Input
Amino acid sequence: MKALLLLISLFFSINAGAQSTFIKTYGNSQSDFGTSCVEAFDKGILLTVSTSTNFFNIQMALVKTDRNGQMLWNKIKQVGSYSYPQSVVESTDSGIVVFGSANYTPTLNGNDDFLFLLKTDSNGNDLWSKEFRFSQNDQPVKLLKAKTGGFIFSAINDYNISVYPKAGIVRLEEDGSIRWSKRIEVPFGIKPTSIVETINGNICLVGNVVGYNSIYFNDVAVCYLDSNGAELWTKVFQTYYDDECNIVTTNTAGELFISGRTYSIAREWDSFQIKLNSAGDMQYQRMYDAGTSNGEIMRTGISYDDGSSLLLGDVGGWDERDITMLRLNSDGSIRWCRKYPFSPQFTNYPYGIIRTSDDGLIFTGDIRPPAYYRDAALVKTTNIGGLICYQDTVIFTMHQDTFTVIEPSFTIIDTLIVPVDSIVNVTFNLITEKSVCQQIFPIPDFTYEEDTICSSQCIRFIDKSLNDPISWSWTFSGADSAVSYVQNPEEICFESKGSFIVNLEVTNSDGTSSITKEITIGSECPEEPFVIPNVFTPNGDGKNDIFEIKNLPASATMRIYNRWGNQMFTTSEKKRSWTGFDTNGKKASDGVYFYVLDVSSVTYKGSIQLIGGN
Output
């Protein structure tokens, strides 16, 4: 009968109230701002920064931080003489892909830009870079990691020149080659502002158009395409004055959340959100007014699977704007709102927000903390927008104006372009990190190993907590030791096989967090039970001087390790028992050691206590 190790976590829970928060900035002595961020596979953060050494020498910085915003590395990249990074995503092979615009001969009017896609490895080392030219002047909108592999990006074609702008959408393979490319044309132009891929692989692009009312105000355009770029439906939403969208998000129900700002004579600029189903039917339309002098605008956001949403933008006057967060219920009503006055008398803008794996929120943008230069920001809040500094109240009032819905016909054209390889220059530009404030709670976690010989239900617990814990408090249900205060309890024996609750509470200088797991322990016996002592005393008195396992097959091997994982002994043809000396002939000290038995294709583990050693 083979021994079967059963160590199963049936459930676990973490104290969600203890969420770490921080405000970090990254930059140099010039003006810098964060354009996009994403959580990496290792739970660190990837951040793109627009940085510079002078007005014409715009560079892109790729920054990697740990989960607490501490910078691990940064790389300065430049395609041509001017490089602006718009989006960053992580590829399926843990590489990094940056999307942006560049120019070899930058001018004051910013024309003749082309698009680039840069692929690096997980450490920011270049793998390839490609240029895409769709028009005389292209501006990036957003890059997405496609659900079935590869990428999707959108861009403004013919931007800021003497023809009407157009929207470009491109579907890419993993290597940056083009699967298909489309251009959307509208009689008086369209400026795309955001794009999203829905749960079923369809694509929704939003942007601003004119020409659908007599005074040529801006209206909101929504174009819904299938996975091959074919039009499914198109709608335009308008009030009497200007309506400008900035962001579209989606959830697992395929709902669409479109946000930005809208103008009225009575209230000037207000934020708005339109919620649609996947067929384009209106679920709600809401406006939000905070009564500030130059209005409220939402620039980015998140949608949740329960139909609720979160908006991030800024409020205030033309010379002083504070970042604000607005949490909405599934019907668009206000759940809560926050304001972050980082720097009075200066403007602050957010450009991207994500949910983290610990259910927190991280956003980036452009802030100017007191006594600092304008820097790229990385701000981590709790899931309800909490920070330990620079947090204030703001009051939004919800009201409802009516959007008129128009169903126009847009022209979608296949475009044929061939990307070309581009040269990336790695330049020197010192990016430094500044910590404005932080509260970093410990993140509790542990694993465990069973003494896999059937005569025992003893467990070794290994602490895996993060963020520098300084104390540990364990609680074990059904064990001979109900509590422990050491980091790694080594011999916790349970009364029987079965399921038991284990709780670990860890503390660091910022606070306390806990985790609870239910474990199931138990192992089947070998056909002929091994006889294994749990203590031996190699003191030379002729009694219990060796550690020997009876009934161990001749083909089996045994290894002994100390608590630091260093191998102390291994069996050979001539040596089948351990006398308490390491491989260098040095006598081991008192303590608990761990054995590993390899019997046929089965591995057994357990512990032995040595008394009377060195």
